[in-house]
Fold this sequence. Notes:
Layout: H1 2-28, H2 35-49, E1 54-58, H3 64-92, H4 99-113, E2 118-122
Antiparallel strand pairs: 1-2
Helix pairs in contact: 1-2, 3-4
Amino acid sequence: MKTILNIIWLLLSGIWLFLGYCLAGCLLCVTIIGIPFGIAAFRIAVYALWPFGYTTVERRDAGAGSCIGNVLWLVLAGWWLAIGHIVTGIALCVTIIGIPFGIANFKMVPLSLLPLGREIVPTDAPFASR
């Protein structure tokens, strides 16, 4: 079932989210300071391309650098990305067919708010990284 949902997601919105996050990642990697944020954008892009069957977990070894980076990300880009995912999720949940895709957008909100110090893992092994 998750394969079918991923294919429909890919055709309807996944490819556009993937391309948007990849473009943001490329722009962020232009400066040395932006490279960690660009890598986070690429990680979100892969998750946005194929979200069903995966989840995010917090990395225990993330230190103060990821905390400071998350604060910068939250202030500069995180709010806007999260609002976009929330609005899109609400719009998708209006129809019965769109509910799983709306939930997938809601799953991306925490990752778009605070991406540093998080890892994307399969849903059948959410504690594998711990």
